[in-house]
Specification:
- By secondary structure, the protein is of the alpha+beta class.
- It is built from two helices and two strands, in the order E-H-H-E.
- Helix 1 crosses helix 2.
- The longest helix is centred in the middle third of the chain and has 18 residues.
- The chain is elongated and about 55 Å long.
- It starts with 11 loop residues before the first strand and ends in an 8-residue tail after the last strand.
Amino acid sequence: MIPPGSFLLPTFNDLHLHAPQFLYQGTGLHLPLMHWLNEYAFKAEERLDTDSHLAEIVYKRLAERLIEHGTGAVLLFGTIKAETK
């Protein structure tokens, strides 16, 4: 039961998020999709696949940012390498 004078505030639910893209969020917005993928997305995924320490830093910071902004649930995509997912 909710106490009188209280209210429920639902969390944000993101349908899906590509974690490697957190490295360069907000960049390349002027590019068509395939150019953007080649210039930013695929390079970020490769970079995280080759550096597990960087992947850990990026993913932890992303998780902190999502929590800070009230995201309660997200389908999160990582990279292909198991050690850096």
